[in-house]
Design a protein that fits this description.
This protein has 395 residues and is an all-alpha fold. It has a single domain, classed as Growth Hormone, Chain: A (Up-down Bundle), CATH 1.20.1250. It is built from 15 helices and no strands. The longest helix is centred in the C-terminal third of the chain and has 64 residues. The radius of gyration is 20 Å and the shape is globular. The N and C termini lie far apart (52 Å).
Length: 395
């Protein structure tokens, strides 16, 4: 293996490993939520605050991503990634040491800003480094690596949560390894053709064309993120279920996701971006509907496996869809806004669903989310049918 090939290999591995930071920050502490709620039961509104600890990073990813996207275009990818990874390690592992919910919430907010830089930075690098079929292929690999990271991380988090609720926070130390990879193997793309920052203001994002991409990212995340927020309580209420089993239940769908992420290149050759979006929402509809029928462990896993289809297709489809519409000069900003939409969906998921949980219970909420997912899928199908009809008339 020559030096160039070896450097490219380690560069790509660094990017793939970096992509897992989003799932680490998003759901790794989910199996520890019941233990955390018990530890802070004397704190006012502990149940709500514990759930907020899960979603707090999402809010600050959403807030920080548009600004970080602009910095990626102006300052470059590597400096933002290095700073973000340092904050990721320090803020992510802080929950192991902190003794109040308020201080943990602050650390999780800082973690969100770090993830905004990491996720936007690595996704922009992917779009910089690859194009065409190679882009779709690598986006599939990236989606698969996120799923694999979710599998390993959730299983590890579940077992660590059985030891104590603090231990899953230490999983964020994987950022040290990613930091080393960025230092040695990541270079700024097209350095000789770097844009003049003053020229960037003349290039405008095609917001109207990107709106369906951003809306899909927001709604898919909102509809799916009910599971890490509510599933531990749904499964453990009245059942002899451990934190490690909750972690396993959340991890198993990512196996399906990994498979479909690897198949994304072939699927994208057959279906349009909007058709794939319809498939994603339909998989979520089946997911929520099956889970709503019973809190039995086997039934829940069966439903989640359907959701794994959408989980695997969502990230590569949104990223490839965005890349096909975005000028190179504003890729950082476009990816920053996409990251913001994804994590706004995460943050608002428990806020939107909590009134339904209070009114009709968790199972009833799953039914309503199934109906919403099915409706959105049908909207995409009707749009595609109408567009196809117009093309037939034109011919």
């Amino acid at each position: 293996m020559n030096a160039h090939v070896g450097g490219t290999l380690f560069r790509n591995l660094t990017i793939l490993l970096g992509g897992t930071c989003s799932v680490l920050a998003a759901i790794m502490i989910s199996p520890a939520l019941p233990g955390m709620a018990e530890a802070f039961k004397d704190t006012p509104d502990a149940d709500f605050l514990v759930r907020l600890i899960l979603t707090m990073p999402a809010l600050f990813v959403a807030i920080g991503s548009p600004f970080i996207g602009g910095l990626l275009d102006r300052w470059g990818r590597k400096p933002i990634l290095l700073i973000s990874l340092v904050v990721f390690v320090l803020a992510g592992s802080a929950g192991f040491f902190l003794d109040t919910l308020a201080s943990i919430l602050v650390s999780r907010a800082l973690l969100g800003l770090a993830v905004a830089g990491i996720m936007s930075g690595f996704m922009t690098l992917i779009i910089d480094y690859f194009e065409g079929e190679s882009l779709n292929r690598f986006l599939g690999l990236n989606g698969a690596s996120v799923c694999l990271g979710g599998i390993l991380g959730l299983v590890a988090s579940g077992f660590l949560a059985d030891i104590g609720w603090r231990y899953p926070f230490l999983i964020h130390l994987v950022g040290v390894l990613i930091f080393i990879g960025v230092v040695f193997f990541i270079d700024e793309p097209n350095k000789s053709k770097k844009q003049n920052p003053k020229a960037l203001g003349g290039v405008v994002l095609p917001y109207e064309k990107l709106a369906p991409v951003y809306a899909t990212a927001f709604m898919c995340t909102l509809l799916f993120f009910i599971f890490p927020a509510q599933l531990p309580f749904y499964l453990m209420a009245g059942n002899d279920i451990t934190s490690s089993q909750v972690g396993m239940a959340l991890a198993l769908p990512t196996i399906v996701g990994l498979i479909f992420a690897l198949l994304y290149k072939r699927i994208s050759d057959l279906l349009s971006f909007k058709a794939i979006a319809a498939v994603i929402f339909m998989s979520y509809a089946i997911n929520h509907l099956v889970v709503s029928t019973s809190s039995d462990y086997t039934v829940v896993i069966l439903g989640l496996l359907f959701g794994g289809i959408g989980m695997g297709l969502l990230s590569p489809n949104n990223s490839s869809w965005l890349a096909s519409l975005t000028p190179v000069e504003v890729r950082g900003r476009a990816v920053g806004l996409l990251t913001s939409c994804i994590f706004l969906g995460q943050f608002f998921s428990p806020i939107v669903t909590q009134p339904f949980v209070a009114a009709v219970g968790i199972s009833g909420t799953f039914e309503l989310m199934a109906l919403a997912s099915f409706f959105i899928s049908i909207v995409f199908v009707l749009f595609l049918a109408k567009h196809s009809g117009r093309q037939a008339i034109a011919q």
